[in-house]
Design goal:
Layout: H1 6-26, H2 29-34, H3 40-68, H4 73-86, H5 98-124, H6 130-157, H7 162-168, H8 170-181, H9 193-197
Helix pairs in contact: 1-6, 1-8, 3-5, 4-5, 4-8
């Protein structure tokens, strides 16, 4: 297999680290909430429903922004950083509505980064290698979920409290953002240039 461009590799590394961070938190959230709130199933259902709605809405919005933006990397970095900062805050929840806010902010980050990230992946390789690039990225994403879930299980078995695991999630999250700093933004047509060239 030919070597993939550095931007594709680093976007994959970011997804791997981001998913590790996410799994360190959200695999333990149901038990964490159940120990604190009598209506934990309702809180959990409301939290996930709100989160998915927020993520879907921001994916649509970020797709439109990605089409108009001259630079996409700032959108991806902002989304990753927002999620990385939000997740550890789950350790601080004391009211039933707090987890909803934390999870919603995390999903804002996901929605914000997804469309511009995919646009960067597509721009980083020739058309004939896009399947390879996206396949690599999805593999890294799923590997991160597997590693994160395993790490969460090991921490639980070792007696590490949920709040400590939530705070630890900032480490892979921050490393994921740092990996993006090394990714060069691929060249792509200036938004609107094609339309302006048409007489």
């Amino acid at each position: 297999m030919r070597r993939l461009p550095r931007a594709v590799v680093l976007l994959g590394v970011t997804s791997l680290l981001t998913d590790i961070s996410s799994e360190l938190v959200f695999t333990r959230v149901p038990a964490f909430l159940a120990a604190r709130f009598p209506g934990a199933p309702v809180v959990l259902g409301a939290m996930e429903g709100l989160a998915e709605g927020v993520a879907a809405g921001f994916k649509v919005a970020s797709g439109a922004w990605a089409d108009r933006a001259r630079k996409l990397k700032p959108l991806v970095v902002s989304g990753c950083a927002l999620a990385a900062l939000a997740r550890p805050c789950m350790a601080l929840v004391t009211r039933a509505w707090h987890p909803l806010v934390v999870r919603a902010v995390d999903r804002v980050g996901k929605g914000l980064r997804t469309s511009p990230r995919d646009t960067l992946l597509a721009a980083a390789v020739p058309a004939g290698r896009r399947g390879e690039a996206f396949g690599f990225h999805r593999a890294m994403d799923h590997a991160g979920a597997a590693v994160g879930a395993a790490a969460a299980a090991l921490l639980t078995a070792a007696g590490v409290e949920a709040q400590a695991a939530f705070l630890l999630s900032v480490v892979p999250g921050a490393l994921g953002v740092a990996a993006l700093a090394w990714a060069e933004e691929p060249e792509r047509p200036v938004p609107g240039a094609a339309a302006e060239a048409v007489p």
